[in-house]
Amino acid sequence: MTLLRRSYYNLVSYLSETEQVKNFTGFGLYDKVVMDLIHSTGDHYPYVRGLISEMGFPVAKVEYARPGRERGLTKNSLYDLYTQAMNGIVNQSKLPLRLATFVGFIMAICSALVALGYFVYKLLYWESFNLGAAPLVIGLFFFSAVQLIFLGIIGEYIGAIHGRIFQKWLVIEKERVNFDE
């Protein structure tokens, strides 16, 4: 599970548009300004790790060795962990939306090339060439690719709507509050 978590946080850090705080659990001592900003987003299930990174305030880290669980089980089910993981990816990156469009274009190009090759092969071996299911499969892949392209475009619009409705702040000045220099 530790390896899976570490891999997930590395993935979110890679996909994120802002630099993420490494090994950050989300627990901490926050200033009232930070809490007010988190509440101002209007998100009922905020991804605190990402929001703290996006705010741009200086972060003071306290290193400690977390002891292993002595008894009992975690309260988070696999579904809860999946929900938190998808929340982090969706809130920190638009790359999955863009990936759908990109994969759709690649599939459409590959389908068109295979169809062209199939057509040339049919012209060269007209008499001995059987029709078969190849044109159906090529058409199926091409139209699936077109659907994936449009799904990616719709996803881009949904991502833009999410960005506008979420009420994130644009820029916050960095300042140290209640810390001595």
Task: Describe the 3D structure.
- The longest helix is centred in the last third of the chain and has 32 residues, at 134-165.
- Helix content is 60%, strand content 0%.
- The protein is elongated, with a radius of gyration of 24 Å.
- The chain has helices at residues 2-15, 32-40, 48-55, 78-92, 95-124, 134-165.
- The model has no long low-confidence stretch (mean pLDDT 78).
- With 181 residues, the chain is mostly helical.
- Total number of helices: 6
Give the SSE string.
Answer: HHHHHH
Using only C-alpha atoms, the radius of gyration works out to 24 Å
* N-end to C-end Cα span: 39 Å
Percent of residues in helices: 55-70%
- Our estimate of the beta-strand percent is under 5%
The biggest beta sheet is recorded as: none
Average pLDDT number: 78
Low-pLDDT regions? none
What is the overall silhouette? Answer: elongated
Structural class: mainly alpha
Per DSSP E runs of 2 or more residues, the count of β-strands stands at: 0
Brief summary:
This protein is an all-alpha fold and 181 residues long. It has helices spanning 2-15, 32-40, 48-55, 78-92, 95-124, 134-165. The longest helix has 32 residues, at 134-165.
SSE topology:
Layout: H1 2-15, H2 32-40, H3 48-55, H4 78-92, H5 95-124, H6 134-165
Helix pairs in contact: 5-6
